[in-house]
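Annual report, structural modelling task.

Input specification for the FE2/S2 (inorganic) cluster complex:
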Amino acid sequence: MFVCVCNAITENDIRHAVNNGNETIKQIKQKFAVGDQCGGCVSLTKQIISEQLAVNACYYEVA
Ligand code: FES
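The model returned the following structure:
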């Protein structure tokens, strides 16, 4: 699913970036330029970052 239509950034792109250490909206913006056009994707991007960080935290608790 496209999160940022203006820059063709997908949900998977963001999740992979979070898994590779880009854990803040600032880091994601620097990596993909998310939100630099219309800005309509910023809140969904923040939500995906939070979700992925929660998933990763659960993974490390079990592992
Ligand atoms: S949808 Fe991301 S900047 Fe427009």
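The longest strand covers residues 2-4.
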